[in-house]
Every structure is written in structure tokens, then in C-alpha cells.
Design brief:
By secondary structure, this protein is of the alpha+beta class. The protein has three helices and ten strands. The chain has a five-stranded antiparallel β-sheet with strand order 2-1-4-8-7, with no helix packed on it. Strands 3, 5, 6, 9 and 10 form a five-stranded mixed β-sheet that branches. The model is unreliable at 1-9 (pLDDT under 50).
Length: 206
């Protein structure tokens, strides 16, 4: 038996569902690597992006196997991996990193409040800011428990160098819950958005 989520009727065996989703991650990675080829990148850059995608496949499927004991957790880990592959396919035209502690992308944290550090630097002469994931949605947030976030009042202010913090309140969560979130950063010039990229992170609570 396993702890199935009430709203899911798609699977009756967690291991079968884990296997299905792991296979899907492998299959869709081929599409992302194919899109890399369409960008006319240098051989070195194309090789680097494909290697990053392959690493996402490996690590995401490792997380699915080790850390998912409900259908919802499998979905969180799978969708997080898909988001990461899309981000790495597009690449980053500016420096951008999201840290939980000293870790990026796949992280661990104790139950409680998570201090998320968002760092980004635009190209010379441009500004950088945190943007909305969608029009009325600041971040993409998926979790197996109730999670809220706290941001500064000037979260959307454009700056020369971004070094801001977002607090994820996971005090209502339990050990082994999963949280996946995506933060978007925009590079701007004269109030016009030149580039925008997302950075997805998954956290296992301990």
C-alpha cells in the first residue's frame, strides 16, 4: 500500500506511476535536445546545454525513485524536471541563480521557513528585476503541503545587480514533503523587457 492523494485516480500502484513518469522524462528530453539543435549554437554551447538536460533527467528520476511516496509528489518532481529542461534548453543570456542555503536546483531544508536567495546580473547598461511568472502570478509554486511566501515591498524594482530574498513559509509542512518553485527574472532597458528567464528549484523537507 502507499499514501495515495485523494484527488488522483490515475494510478493504483506508486511504483508503476514512478516508472511511467521516469520514462516520460527520458522521452521528452529528446525533444528538448532536438530544440537545442535548432538554435544554431556553437558546438561547445550545444554540447553543454544537452549535457545539462541529461543531468536533469538523471537527477529528476533519482528524486522520483527516492523521495516520492504519493502521486502528487511524483507529479511535483516530474513537472519540476520538465521545467528545468525547458530552462536549460533556452539557456541564460544573463547571470541568474537561485539558492536555498548553498545549494541550487535540487535542495534540502528543514521544515520551517526557507530563505531563498535570488541573484542575477544583467549585461552592461541594462537593469534586472524579478518578474511575474504569469500576469497575476508572481511565482510558480507546487507543493505537497501548504506553503506561503513573503517578499519585500520593492520586489519588482529594477536594479543594477539583483541580490534579494524570498521567504517560503513551510511551517505547516512535514518531513519528506516536496516543494517546487520557479522564479522569473527580467532583463530590461528603458522600461522594455529584453529577456526573461525562469529558474526552477525543488526542495525536500527534512
Amino acid at each position: 500500500m502507499f499514501a495515495s492523494d485523494r484527488d488522483s485516480e490515475r494510478a493504483t500502484d506508486i511504483q508503476d506511476y514512478q516508472g511511467t513518469c521516469s520514462e516520460f522524462i527520458v522521452e521528452i528530453s529528446s525533444d528538448y535536445k532536438g530544440w537545442v539543435d535548432k538554435y544554431n549554437l556553437s558546438p561547445e554551447e550545444a554540447k553543454s546545454r544537452k549535457a545539462s538536460i541529461e543531468k536533469v533527467v538523471e537527477t529528476t528520476n533519482e528524486w522520483i525513485t527516492k523521495y516520492t511516496d504519493t502521486i502528487k509528489k511524483v507529479d511535483i518532481a516530474m513537472n519540476d524536471g520538465i521545467n528545468k529542461m525547458a530552462e536549460l534548453t533556452a539557456g541564460y543570456p544573463f547571470k541568474f541563480e537561485v539558492l536555498v542555503g548553498q545549494s541550487i536546483r535540487y535542495t534540502y531544508h528543514q521544515v520551517g521557513k526557507l530563505k531563498v536567495n535570488v541573484k542575477a546580473s544583467p549585461k552592461p547598461g541594462h537593469l534586472i528585476r524579478i518578474g511575474n511568472y504569469h500576469k497575476d502570478q508572481l511565482f510558480l509554486l507546487n507543493s505537497s503541503c501548504q506553503v506561503n511566501f513573503v517578499v519585500s515591498e520593492d520586489i519588482a524594482r529594477a536594479v543594477d545587480v539583483l541580490d534579494d530574498f524570498v521567504i517560503l513559509d513551510a511551517t505547516q509542512c512535514l518531513k519528506n514533503d516536496l516543494i517546487s518553485f520557479t522564479i522569473v527574472v527580467e532583463e530590461i532597458s528603458n522600461e522594455s523587457v529584453l529577456e526573461r528567464r525562469g529558474y526552477s528549484t525543488i526542495v525536500m523537507l527534512s
